[in-house]
């Protein structure tokens, strides 16, 4: 599949009737209709809190009921995942990880990162209907599927179908970016709403305006606060990893923050830090010990020496206080 082909479309469903939809999906049409009519009682909204770059970030996430989630997962696996995505589209794709993103851009002369603002909410129902129609669904089936996978008129964060649908709807942007990248010897990846280009500094600076300018015509909005250009000596970041060297590694500031929390646990006691952790870092009931253990394991994948030091501090803490 050539990304430059103008007739390229990532998915063909060819669904014309409720009977055909039910057979292909493996769910009775009555069940599909039930969840569409009763979305409000089958979806819970919560606010996810986390610290990113030293700042508290909040985002609204919608969690479907277990049965509704099964239906959405079936829609994902039987329909959406059969799509052929453009090269370098990695987020929400089975078998792809942040490692795949970071390795593409490691040790490049310069890196340009950009972020699509309010990515999921910006994809309204009208665009989803249009996509399903283009995928070969009848008007009624396109509307039915759109009602199933959207909430309050847009793609909701937290639905299993949202990442792949967003990938599919962003396909034309991906293709334009990839074509621009190929013409100018630039590497390009997209992980959900994070887009990264890398290559020679001269090529990036010359083409940055056109790369950034491609976003708005495709119905997306650039988050100017998260647009970042860095040369290799300034430790560029992709997917939360430092990519200035030949292999990705954890940024020093992240390791320092984990070390700081560990020492606070030793100094003030884990009970005190647990309260602060719940109040300022994560939503309530986040377990301090398991969270830090997970963070250290993640660091160990990339920075073995630093992780060994953190493990030693971790093991010296009296966790029985919790």
Describe the fold and architecture:
The chain has 322 residues and is α+β, with helices and mostly antiparallel strands. It has helices spanning 18-25, 29-37, 66-78, 98-105, 119-122, 125-134, 139-149, 162-169, 171-183, 201-213, 252-268, 270-280, 288-300, 304-315, and strands at residues 43-52, 55-64, 110-115, 187-191, 194-199, 228-231, 237-238, 241-242. The strands form three sheets. It has a four-stranded antiparallel beta sheet with strand order 4-5-3-6, with helices on both faces. A two-stranded antiparallel ribbon has the order 1-2. Strands 7-8 form a two-stranded antiparallel sheet. A hairpin with a 2-residue loop joins strand 7 (237-238) and strand 8. Helix 6 crosses helix 7 and helix 11 runs parallel beside helix 14. The relative contact order is 0.13.
């Amino acid at each position: 599949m050539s990304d430059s082909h103008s007739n390229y479309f990532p998915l063909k469903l060819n669904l014309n009737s409720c009977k055909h939809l039910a057979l292909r999906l493996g769910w009775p049409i009555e069940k599909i209709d039930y969840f569409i009519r009763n979305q409000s009682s089958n979806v819970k909204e919560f606010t996810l809190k986390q610290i990113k770059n030293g700042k508290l970030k909040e985002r609204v996430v919608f969690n479907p009921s277990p049965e509704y989630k099964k239906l959405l997962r079936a829609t994902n696996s039987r329909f959406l995942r059969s799509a052929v995505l453009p090269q370098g589209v990695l987020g929400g794709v089975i078998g792809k990880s942040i490692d795949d993103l970071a390795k593409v851009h490691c040790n490049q002369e310069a890196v340009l990162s950009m972020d699509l603002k309010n990515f999921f909410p910006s994809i309204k129902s009208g665009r989803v209907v249009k996509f399903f129609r283009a995928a070969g669904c009848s008007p009624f089936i396109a509307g039915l599927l759109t009602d199933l996978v959207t909430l309050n008129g847009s793609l909701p964060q937290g639905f299993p179908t949202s990442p792949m649908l967003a990938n599919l709807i962003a396909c034309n942007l991906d293709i334009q970016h990839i074509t621009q990248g190929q013409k100018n010897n630039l590497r390009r990846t997209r992980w959900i709403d994070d887009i990264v280009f890398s290559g020679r500094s001269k090529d990036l600076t010359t083409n940055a305006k056109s790369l950034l300018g491609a976003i708005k015509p495709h119905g997306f909005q650039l988050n100017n606060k998260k647009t970042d250009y860095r040369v290799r000596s300034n430790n560029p970041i992709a997917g939360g990893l430092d990519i200035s060297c030949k292999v990705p590694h954890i940024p020093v500031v992240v390791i320092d923050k984990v070390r700081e929390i560990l020492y606070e646990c030793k100094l003030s006691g884990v009970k005190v830090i647990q309260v602060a952790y719940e109040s300022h870092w994560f939503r309530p009931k986040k377990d301090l010990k398991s969270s830090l253990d997970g963070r250290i394991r993640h660091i160990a994948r990339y920075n073995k020496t630093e992780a060994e030091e953190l493990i030693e501090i971790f093991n010296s803490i009296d966790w029985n206080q919790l």
